[in-house]
Amino acid sequence: MTTARTATPGSPLALLVRASLVPSLVGGAVCGLFFLFVDGSAGLAGAGLGAVLVIGFFCLGRFVLEVMRVTDAGVYLVIALLTYCLQVVALLALFAGFQRNPSWETHFSTTAIGVTVIACTLVWTTGLVLASRRERTPLYDLEPGAR
Question: For residue 124, with 0-12 CB atoms within 10 Å meaning exposed, 13-18 middle and 19 or more buried, which class applies?
Fold first, then answer.
């Protein structure tokens, strides 16, 4: 078994863009076109909102973690957990605002938001899993002279 890495050009952010961001944008566009025909402009707006929510959620978290990557592992873990908690609180605040204002349902299709969020999340996660399988990052560093 070898621990040699495959040649992946660019930074981890370039891998993120190739593996997850672009397919998620395509998935959001496909959902938008589908819901444009099903629900009209409310479906398109709902699919767009769902795609923006998912892509914004994942990109913000990944960007913060990339910036903090050079810190100590303990600090990195605290920042990762804090970022995730703040993202969840922000989503709860957004959905609570939607709940308080029922007129938003005339502008956005709730079905389109839900389906697009699920689809884009699945596409994003699948892209990252496939990219990490191709990247072949060793689980540990081998000492010089070791097998």
Answer: buried
